[in-house]
Amino acid sequence: MILYTDIKALHTFAGIVKKDGRRPTDADLSTVHEAAMLIDRRGTVVAAGPAIEVKARAARYKTVKRVSLKGAEVLPAFTECHTHLLYEGSRADEFELRNQGVSYLEIGFRGGGIRSTMERTSLATEKQLQASLAARASEFLEQGVTAIEIKSGYAATVEEELRHLQVLRRFAKRSHPLKIVVTALSAHAIPQGIAESEWLDQVLAKIFPFAKKEGIRVDIFVEKGAFSQQSGRRYLQKAQEYGLKFSVHADQLSNSGGTALGVEFEAQSVDHVIEIGEKEIRRLAQSGTTAVLLPAADVYTRLPFPKARQLIDAGVRVALATDHNPGSSPGLDLAFVGCLARASMQMTLAEVLAAYTYNAACAIGLGDERGALAPGRRADFIQLAPGCGLRDLFYAVGPRRSMAAVQSVYISGVRAFSRSR
Ligand code: NIG
Ligand code: FE
Questions:
Q1: What is the pLDDT of residues 335-368, one digit of tens each?
Q2: Which CATH number fits domain 79-363: 3.40.190.10, 3.40.50.150, 3.30.460.40, 3.20.20.140?
Q3: Which ligand is in closest contact with the Cα of 250?
Q4: Which atom of ligand 1 lies at the shortest distance from residue 272's CA?
């Protein structure tokens, strides 16, 4: 048992869970002043609340280690619920092309885009891939992230796709106790020289059984130039038959039916959701599906931002993520994402905090264990720097500024990162 004491303000986020992540307000951050937190040996929260009550609870146990957090503020750790971390190579040239007016789709049609990353990634050894993954994951940890979703999706053959998934499985094991959720985005771009239906045949026959065996989620990019709504239907139907959980890259560049499909098949999340209307928003609000917004990618692809205000006000559970990938979102900066959400999408700080904790956890099936510091939940938390509060998060960006308010990050009750000053 560990008892963390001297917490000036413990933001438990219990109210966010109670509202299932919908329309979160400041009150839902459920802040307790002069607080303590008791954690068991498995890294689960036993009690979190007023110091007097938690200390009384701790007195029932024989061996309790006391650790003072010296008057810091504490909040639940973040979940990064949408990344494409497994890749090699840069696509910096395409950024220049896009800025000069060539569209993301056009670059893809010319053989650039996702396909060029497929080529570069196929040349990398497992050792190189593991090293890249580790470096990128540790950048997330330093910002307070303790659970990361990682998609495959840069393989041009199913054999190569299986190799990537194996690399990710091994990375997930190595990274423990950092939680890695692996998603097979095996329908990302149609590899050169193969028909859409033929590629799907192969994926359904060879990747889905593997995903089932290994507990891997799946995802599909439903879009012009990628996979049709019809293919999406086939993919998700099969996924359901296999009992797989899934997300959909939906309505990013055009209204191509991904959101409707995701809601119909009860996807854990629909991601991007830029080109959607009131009908889709209403249906999302009535569903258990989380809408994942990726504003950093919208900047790099010069797309409009999704309608965050309408989504949240309608009662949709909204999450945020970096969408880190070499093409549409080369950054790994949570503060950049949060600042865009606040300044350009009119999300409140409470909404951004919910979007990066409980709501993000729901988007990848971890809503039962993460996102709040309450009994029975994972004791993954952030200790803020002396004098810092929630207002200092998702505020400044830039070297040594982004998320600098994060002093230490704890996973399952144990310190996993501490910032040197
Ligand atoms: O989420 N939209 C499709 N997939 C990624 C981009 C991947 C890439 O361009 O390499 C995204 O933006
Ligand atoms: Fe993506």
A1: 999 999 999 999 999 999 999 999 999 999 999 9
A2: 3.20.20.140
A3: 1
A4: 1
